[in-house]
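Reviewers asked in the last cycle whether our approach scales beyond single polypeptides. To address this, we selected a multi-component target totalling 636 residues and predicted its structure end to end. The input consisted of the following lines:
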Amino acid sequence: MTLSTLNNCLRRIALTLTLATGAWLVGASFGAQKASAQGFYSNVQDIDVIIDTSQGFTPTPIAVEDPTNRSGAALYPSDLQDLLDISEVIRHDLDFTPLCSLIYIDSLYMTHMGLTEMDAKAWQRLGANYYVTLSAKLTPETVSVRYRAFYAPTDSERASGEFEVDRKFYRALAHRISDDIVEKLFTEKGIFQTRICYIVKKGSAKNLFVADYDGASPTQVLSNGSINLSPAFTPDGKELLFTSFVDGNPKIYSFGLKTGKTKLIAGFPGLNSAPTVSPDGDRIACVLTKDGNAEIYLLDRRGRIIRRLTRTRAIESAPSFSKDGQEIVFSSDRSGSPQIYIMDTEGLNVRRVTFQGRYNDSPVWSPKGDVILFVSRTKSGRFDICTISPTGQNFRILTNTGANENPHFSPDGNSIVFSSTRLGVKEIFTMDRFGRKQSRLTRTAGRGDAKGASNPTWGPYRE
Amino acid sequence: MKRFIVVSVLFGAIALMSTACGPPKGDDGDGRTVIGDTTPPPPPPPPVDTVPEEPEVRTISESEFSTVYFDFDKASIKPDFSTTLENNADLMKESMDMLIQIEGHCDERGTVEYNLALSERRALATKNYLVNLGIAAERIEIIPYGKERPAVLGHNEAAWSKNRRAEFRILSQ
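The resulting structure, written as structure tokens, was:
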């Protein structure tokens, strides 16, 4: 218990330090790193940091040592490059989560300050609560990295670990280290080994892609010459459910990521769409129009109807299960415009969540259950990503440019993936749950015949 | 109408012929050979030659069907499109074997899922209008495309108004 009060205390200190770090931050030597770090610190929405302090979400300043800065680093240049790559990925990971704020110092800055190496005192002076050191053992085939995380004010070790992989998979190794750091320092499971699925438009077809959470290794997993939409991972991460026009009218299929096999789940007359799987993996909620109007149905895992959940003349759409699987949030235009509602899995106890605006849709329940993420047509006429509590309070707009759509939470509920037209062609973006750290994940435009990415969804934790 | 009368005359003629000539030994029971066998009257042949071909000569092309447009977030048929739909219905009456598919579409605004449902409503409203004009429901298939297949690219009302539509496709005729 004393630890948690200490922690709170530190977080409060961290806040003042974070606000000061802007002045300390010197350009990073890695292009991508530089962009994201500066983007974050120059973000006007930093004001949110203060608001969110009460929610215990002040990011903890953390630094990852640049391996080149260590004195006596007796590594060969080629080996050093491996370690540099790994440290860059770890740094990006820690910068991504709202749990941390990354402090980065490059060698130019060190020279300027007359520093030969960064020690606990130096990090502490820069506002870092924690700093991480990395050392590597390399063979021609494998790389083994040991990390140590120190609490800067007392220079005491708080976490450490050693991991080994094939050198080709250095990114995977880096993500494992980042997960380990987050889990040990913040007692939260890291999301750095998770994947994202999305749709890429190629000609008149729309194909399924899977990439690492940070957009690395984008891989086309399914192309059938047709339009495929609305992918959803099963909770075990082994399959994707999606809507496809491959056989005429839109039907729901499952696709095995390991097996590569496609199976029909729901092929009723009319529209079969918007599949989502319950947290226990046993049931599917989706939209069927087989009875003449878009209604929400509960199916078993194989696609057999358990029951119809809505009975109105309105369009019911976009179901998403609550954390315990007992309730479903969905959209309905029964009031004359699409709004967000919640019902139980019997279709009873319906309550309306949104009252602001005339277009609220695509609701998704957060993994922690405390927030509903959705798309709203805001006063500007733009489609923005918003959050609201299940009781209809704390309505917040998280985006302010382009048309933003299809939001989904990371499995820890701390980050959000969505699509946006802010740069012209539709691409996938990520941000944290408060709308900070907005950055682009896909770069499909202008790549061959690909024309934009949409319909993102976030996969579960990977064991 | 005129064509309908001619067709019924033809059927009458065939019916008469087959009864008049008696069942022609089963295997080659085709009108023309039968007529060639029974020498006497020339009157029946002309209609037999011309009439079956006349409806087939005219192949209706998809471009003769006009697209119906909708207001934002609406699926009701606007009064301005009643003539359009009557014309489309007439084309379907011209070729009674014709099967069509009505595609429902939306503009890029709004969500993927909602637009799928909305586009189905547009296709359905269009279908129902034709059914009310006397077209058999079995001849019309509908497919909702949501906002996935815009007719026009662009991010303004000029483009959007052209994308909120119900398009006609000929499946067979």
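Residues 5 and 11 of chain B are 10 Å apart (CA to CA). We regard this as preliminary and will revisit it once experimental data from Aim 1 are available.
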